[in-house]
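Q: I'm building a small set of examples for a reading group on sequence design. Run inverse folding on the following structure and report the sequence directly after it, with nothing in between.
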């Protein structure tokens, strides 16, 4: 091969090398764009940084003012106490004792069990509605008794349950309270009437009564529902019809009411127990103890309104 041919080959090799280097450089640049996003692209795709902003939740319970010595708003669905005022204090229950009496009876007896009004029951002070010897199915007598807070009906129910268990009324009722874990609750009689000027027929805390009322609604929703109506009716085994009026004048003002029970004696003052559904399957218990005969209802209304405001996320209605 002569010098001219060598020069041509060298020139051709150099041109091919330069072309290869150019191709490699171009490929490298392309790879950078494909596989390594540019710095500006990273900055554009990065999510914006936002500062956390604390949102104050309104306290619907802070402004509550009650005459009651003790009260509670208890969430039966979650077991949470939403509001409490001396909720563990043991106070006279008056006719809220009848909730324990009916619960104890229905825990041991069939709803169709015949209950006869005894002479001791028929002689109790008002409210009462029956005569000696009249007989009712337990469920019917319980509906009448709780709706109108009847003393004769509650004692007849307590007597029948205690006879079945072969022990005094007070022991029978103590057993029912213990089974529910009601540590502050006991009763000397089934009606809650004061035994004398210094001893009540039943004692308990607002916390205990909230749980007791919830247990009764769960155990016997139909009987509990009767207490939410303006009146209750039943027919005795002898065929006599009875109609009684509800002792709670505010039943029509509370949405989705599931249970209402009033109580009043000289020792207890005014008491009230309510259960209402704040949503689908979300029962709330409200108990007021040691208020006045009138203010138990305004206290109860204030607690219901605060509960509704709480679940609405506002400070008040």
């Amino acid at each position: 091969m002569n010098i001219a041919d060598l020069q041509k080959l060298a020139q051709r090799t150099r041109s091919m090398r330069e072309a290869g280097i150019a191709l490699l450089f171009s490929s490298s640049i392309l790879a950078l764009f494909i596989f390594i996003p540019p710095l500006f692209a990273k900055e554009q795709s990065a999510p914006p940084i936002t500062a956390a902003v604390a949102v104050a939740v309104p306290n619907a319970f802070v402004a509550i003012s009650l005459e009651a010595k003790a009260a509670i708003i208890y969430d039966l669905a979650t077991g949470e106490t939403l509001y409490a005022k001396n909720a563990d204090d043991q106070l006279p229950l008056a006719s809220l004792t009848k909730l324990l009496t009916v619960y104890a009876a229905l825990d041991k007896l069939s709803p169709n069990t015949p209950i006869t009004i005894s002479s001791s029951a028929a002689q109790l002070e008002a409210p009462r509605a029956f005569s000696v010897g009249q007989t009712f199915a337990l469920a019917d007598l319980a509906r009448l008794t709780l709706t109108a807070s009847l003393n004769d009906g509650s004692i007849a129910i307590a007597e029948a349950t205690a006879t079945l268990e072969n022990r005094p009324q007070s022991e029978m009722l103590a057993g029912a309270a213990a089974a529910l874990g009601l540590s502050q609750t006991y009763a000397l009689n089934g009606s809650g009437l004061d035994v004398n000027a210094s001893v009540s027929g039943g004692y308990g805390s607002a916390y205990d009564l909230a749980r007791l009322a919830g247990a009764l609604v769960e155990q016997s929703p139909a009987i509990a529902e009767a207490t939410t109506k303006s009146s209750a009716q039943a027919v005795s085994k002898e065929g006599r019809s009875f109609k009684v009026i509800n002792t709670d004048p505010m039943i029509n003002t509370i949405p989705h009411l599931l249970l209402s029970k009033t109580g009043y004696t000289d020792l207890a003052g005014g008491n009230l127990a309510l259960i209402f559904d704040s949503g689908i399957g979300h029962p709330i218990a409200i108990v007021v103890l040691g208020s006045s005969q009138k203010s138990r209802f305004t206290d109860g209304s204030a607690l219901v309104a605060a509960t509704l405001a709480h679940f609405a996320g506002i400070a008040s209605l």
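Residues 70-312 form a domain with the Beta-lactamase fold (CATH 3.40.710.10).
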